[in-house]
């Protein structure tokens, strides 16, 4: 069950004494993205306190994914057992503003094919995805995107009609 897997993964993540969950959203049942690419997902957002660098935190998240059987190969955006994303790290922009802007502006057809070699923060497509913004608004509605200048609540309100279609709180 996806909700149970996510709950266990978050527990596993916080076994690292350098990671503490300080806030978490509800779990949301969300249609697969892109539409029709697999079974429904369970999405959530957590705010963390950590002494790890962004790269170390991402490596720890990948370790947890692997412990649940996630393999990072094959086509992008396919069904997977778990997917933990580092959305932001304070107001840090990585690797730099120009690279971030280029990844954020990548046309949709290229997004499915291209993956950055290194960590890009904030997540370059977070502002376009209801399944990211709805849970994130529950834990950090006032966090301001350092390149767009918009809060999470503002980005959520700017989504096109239908962006939250099919989303509902997950029964846990």
TrEMBL record:
Similarity field: Belongs to the HPPK family.
Q: Cite the entry's keywords alphabetically.
A: ATP-binding, Folate biosynthesis, Kinase, Nucleotide-binding, Transferase
- Keyword Cell membrane (UniProt): no
Q: Known CDD domains for this protein?
A: HPPK
- Which protein is depicted? 2-amino-4-hydroxy-6-hydroxymethyldihydropteridine pyrophosphokinase
Q: Does the keyword Oxidoreductase apply?
A: no
Top enzyme category: transferase
| A GO molecular-function annotation | ATP binding
> From what organism does this protein derive?
Paracoccus lutimaris
- State its Enzyme Commission number(s): 2.7.6.3
């Amino acid at each position: 069950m996806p909700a149970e897997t996510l709950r266990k993964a978050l527990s596993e993540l916080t076994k690292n004494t350098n990671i503490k969950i300080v806030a978490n959203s509800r779990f949301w049942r969300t249609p697969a993205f892109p539409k029709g690419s697999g079974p429904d997902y369970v999405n959530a957002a957590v705010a963390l306190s950590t002494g790890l660098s962004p790269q170390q935190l991402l490596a720890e998240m990948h370790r947890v994914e692997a412990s649940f059987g996630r393999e990072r190969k094959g086509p992008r955006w396919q069904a997977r057992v778990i997917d933990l994303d580092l959305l932001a790290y304070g107001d840090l922009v990585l690797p730099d503003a120009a690279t971030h802007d280029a990844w954020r502006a990548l046309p949709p057809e290229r997004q499915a094919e291209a993956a950055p070699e290194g960590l890009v923060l904030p997540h370059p497509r977070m502002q376009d995805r209801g399944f990211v913004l709805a849970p994130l608004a529950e834990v950090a509605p006032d966090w301001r995107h350092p390149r767009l200048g918009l809060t999470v609540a503002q980005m959520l309100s700017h989504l096109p009609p239908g962006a939250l279609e099919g989303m509902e709180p997950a029964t846990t």
